[in-house]
């Protein structure tokens, strides 16, 4: 029941109406009997400073942010975690008595989702992409002691710039070098698509060559969650890969990390993921 004590949380994004975050967090609030509600707010980079001030003035408990607001919000905050500072990306703000703390749960979500299926310290991860999503994932994997990381990107210089910031043993290859990509696929224990290929209008596209040879014991993750089964994941399933993780698992893992920062309570992950899958 919404009353005078209900705490408000939200998403700052542009556009915002399509987001699954309200459904995710409101279900989690209900299941944990927390008197709170989560709304989506359409906020542009131009209106971001006003929106951030509103978090303080209206005593919101916290918010999530999407691109391109994740970097723009950093100078507007009172405190930023070391990881978010390193990633130059904040996707979660916690309001503690008017002081705004910025965190990034993007990469944390990747690590948490993968830890259920593999020992990252022994894993060789092949990461497709070097943009914002790939950057957070690479930094988190590196910080969590991944065995080896290979970054495959169309623009090698961008991938190399990312690799130079990592502590993990990292190599860079071009997505346009099919032989190198196929070799990396065979060597990898974990494959992650952090590109936009496979998303909506690009749903038939994939960063992995059709000639790539996959193994049944590999873990394959796609950050895209709409559609739930992308061409990238279809390739893996057809090759007999047993562990295929769609972007919905990642979305919920990231959301669960934000939820815990706000409430010190765990999100009922399995129930939330099942609920969101039914909405897609």
From TrEMBL:
Top-rank taxon, per record: Bacteria
Q: Which UniProt keywords apply?
A: Amino-acid biosynthesis, Aromatic amino acid biosynthesis, NADP, Oxidoreductase
Chemical reaction(s) catalysed = shikimate + NADP(+) = 3-dehydroshikimate + NADPH + H(+)
Which pathway does the protein contribute to?
Metabolic intermediate biosynthesis; chorismate biosynthesis; chorismate from D-erythrose 4-phosphate and phosphoenolpyruvate: step 4/7
List ligand-binding residues for shikimate: 19-21, 66, 91, 106, 225, 254
Provide a GO biological process annotation: shikimate metabolic process
Q: Can you tell me which residues form the catalytic site?
A: 70
Pfam families assigned? SDH_C (PF18317), Shikimate_DH (PF01488), Shikimate_dh_N (PF08501)
Q: Which family does it belong to?
A: Belongs to the shikimate dehydrogenase family.
How it assembles, according to the record, is: Homodimer.
Q: What does this protein do?
A: Involved in the biosynthesis of the chorismate, which leads to the biosynthesis of aromatic amino acids. Catalyzes the reversible NADPH linked reduction of 3-dehydroshikimate (DHSA) to yield shikimate (SA).
Put simply, this protein is called: Shikimate dehydrogenase (NADP(+))
């Amino acid at each position: 029941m919404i009353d005078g004590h209900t705490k408000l949380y939200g998403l700052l994004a542009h556009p915002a109406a399509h987001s699954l975050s309200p459904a995710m967090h409101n279900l989690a609030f209900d299941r944990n009997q927390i008197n709170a509600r989560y709304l989506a707010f359409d906020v542009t980079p131009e209106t971001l400073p006003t929106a951030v001030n509103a978090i303080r003035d209206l005593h919101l408990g916290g918010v999530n942010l999407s691109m391109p607001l994740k970097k723009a919000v950093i100078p507007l905050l009172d405190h930023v975690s070391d990881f978010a500072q390193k990633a130059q990306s904040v996707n979660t703000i916690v309001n503690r008595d008017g002081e705004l703390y910025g965190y990034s749960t993007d990469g944390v979500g990747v690590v948490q989702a993968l830890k259920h299926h593999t020992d990252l310290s022994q894993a060789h991860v092949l990461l497709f992409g070097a943009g914002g999503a790939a950057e957070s994932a690479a930094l988190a994997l590196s910080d969590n002691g991944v065995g080896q990381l290979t970054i495959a990107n169309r623009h090698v210089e961008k991938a190399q710039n990312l690799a130079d910031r990592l502590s993990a043993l990292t190599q860079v290859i071009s997505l346009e070098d099919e032989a190198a990509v196929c070799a990396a696929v065979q060597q990898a224990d974990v494959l992650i698509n952090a590109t936009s290929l496979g998303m909506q209008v690009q749903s038939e596209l994939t960063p992995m060559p059709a000639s790539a040879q996959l193994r049944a014991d590999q873990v394959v993750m796609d950050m895209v969650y709409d559609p739930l089964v992308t061409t990238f994941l279809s390739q893996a399933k057809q090759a007999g890969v047993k562990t295929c993780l769609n972007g919905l698992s990642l979305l919920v893992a990231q959301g669960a990390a934000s939820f815990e920062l706000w409430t010190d309570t765990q999100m009922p992950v399995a129930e939330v993921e099942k609920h969101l899958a039914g909405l897609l």
